[in-house]
Design goal:
The protein has a single domain (about 1-139), classed as Rossmann fold (3-Layer(aba) Sandwich), CATH 3.40.50.1240. Helix content is about 40%, strand content about 15%. By secondary structure, the chain is an alpha/beta fold. A hairpin with a 5-residue loop joins strand 4 (about 120-125) and strand 5 (about 130-139). It has helices at about 10-20, 45-55, 65-80, 95-105, 110-115; strands spanning about 1-5, 25, 90, 120-125, 130-139. Helix 3 packs across helix 4 (about 95-105).
Length: about 140
């Protein structure tokens, strides 16, 4: 099962793989990138950095990190609980890095900055049943 953000760039990233394995790409708006602000802001990198420490930080017209995590985890949990053999979620950098940060606080702003495009992480269950991640491919 492949579930992707409805943004074209996410769909375009997974389409070659989906075609190769013969699976359709299902769209889920909960995997779209975070809306940082309702209007352009010059200090957007500072806002991204600060939001790893303050999940409630929100710019006018934007989403807080907590809101993004809630919708992102809802989509991922539904996918993981769906009984699929190899579920794949396709999303964007800020949402992905916030999810990874929620699993390991060491993956913060620097982790976000280190993301390549595209990048692939595997989620798996650790011995104590919590989810952990591993970077399995980057460009």
């Amino acid at each position: 099962m492949i579930v992707s953000s409805s943004y074209a760039r996410a769909q375009q990233s997974i389409e070659p793989f989906a075609a190769k394995v013969g699976l359709p790409v299902h769209l889920d708006h909960r995997l779209t990138e975070r809306t940082l602000s309702g209007s352009p802001i010059n200090n957007w990198r500072e806002i991204v950095r600060d939001s790893f420490g303050d999940l409630e930080l929100r710019m006018p017209g934007g989403e807080s990190a907590r809101e993004v995590l809630d919708r992102g985890w809802a989509a991922i949990t539904e996918l993981l609980d769906g009984g699929h053999q190899l579920p794949i979620a396709v999303t964007h950098g800020n949402l992905l890095s916030l999810i990874l940060n929620s699993l390991d606080s060491n993956f913060g702003y620097d982790g976000w900055e280190s993301l390549s495009n595209p990048d692939v992480f595997a989620l798996k269950e650790a011995d104590d049943e919590r989810l952990v991640f591993e970077r399995v491919w980057s460009e």
